Amino acid sequence: MPPRKTSRPPPYAARQNRGGVQIPYQVRSLLRRERLRMIALVILSFLTFLWLIGRIGGESGSTAAAIIGTGPDVVIVTVLDPKADAGWIEKIKKNREDYAKRHGYLTFFPENDRYDLKNSPSSWAKVPAMRHAMTLNPSSAFFWYLESTTLIMEPSLPLTSHVLASSTLEKSMIVNQPVVPPDSVIKTFGNLKGDRIDLIITQDKDGLALSSFVVRNGEWAKYFLDAWFDPIYRSYNFQKADTHALEHIVQWHGTILAKLALVPQNQINAYVTGPANQENGQYRDGDLVANFPGCDKEKRNCADEMKPFFDIADRKARGLD
Question: Name one GO biological process term (predicted).
Fold first, then answer.
């Protein structure tokens, strides 16, 4: 009795095609795989084409198409309290606007109740305000945060050459300095190039001083501001809220410290009153910024304390001094 035929052909079985040529099973399997691979490549190429078309079309009218550096060099950001004296607020805005107009910069004045801070202190509003300003002005290169307790006192000094130029920054940055004075073991780097700095800030007697700082636009800036504004830090109940949160992340995250430059306090943040840096923090005539830290608290009056400085800054803005 002959053996039964199996339903499975032997591995090297050949099949006759229409022309009578025997095609081995292995060859047919290889051809089938190649055909499937070609189909997959065609589909993938088509999907890639559609993605590129959508990306090009989507970016043509979006902020993603903006080229950093093609817009105004600097955007000045000041967060305002809508409950503050209206006359004083107008003077603060005019102080920035006069300076910005003179140098081709822009200004941005959001109110501190515009952002959902989740019951955090209102001082946190500076962080989303900076992020907001970047969204509105994606082609600007630098964003200068100025607290409402500060005044620009030397309207003729452009921030770009006074602080931001790489050569100026390399000469003025303070290296190997404890981030939190006097004895923090974490110190500023000593080998940074000016064009690699993305965060420019000062330090008063107590620590980092956030009344005036500059952030360079870019992906790192977005990462930095988002990290700083993390809900974990806002809910941690730091004694000085956003200030202590920043000191924490600067000391614990090398990716932030590696982009930070400390500059002398009187370069962009000199104190008229308050805990000024003993070496370079006290305001003197000729400094770009005069700061009155805490004048909006402790039963003090910013408008009264600033009045003589408003008059001086206004006279200089009009070219009378």
Answer: protein N-linked glycosylation
How many folded domains does the chain comprise?
A: 2
pLDDT, averaged across the chain: 87
- As a dihedral over the C-alpha atoms of residue 148, residue 157, residue 269, residue 75, rounded to 10 degrees, the angle is 50
Are the C-beta atoms of residues 95 and 152 closer than 8 Å to each other?
Answer: yes
First to last CA, the chain: 122
List, as one string, the DSSP characters of 265-293.
Answer: HHHH-EESSSS--TTT-B--TT-SEEE-T
Which pTM value belongs to this model?
Answer: 0.80
Sign (positive/negative) of CA torsion 284, 290, 293, 294?
Answer: positive
Which residues are CB-contacts of 50 (< 8 A; sequence separation ≥ 6)?
none
CA–CA separation, 189 and 223 (whole Å): 20
Among the candidates 46, 64, 82, a domain finishes at: 64
In a domain, 193, yes or no: yes
Question: For residues 133 and 115, is the Cβ–Cβ distance under 8 A?
Answer: no
d(CA 293, CA 18): 93
Q: Is residue 4 part of a domain?
A: no
pLDDT in tens, 112-171: 999 999 899 999 999 999 999 999 999 999 999 999 999 999 999 999 999 999 999 999
Dihedrals φ, ψ of 189, to 5°?
Answer: -70, 155
Do 58 and 206 share a domain, yes or no?
A: no
Cis amide leading into 308 (omega within 30):
no
Does residue 58 share a domain with residue 185?
A: no
> DSSP state, 72?
-
* pLDDT attached to residue 268: 98
Q: Do the domain assignments include residue 2?
A: no
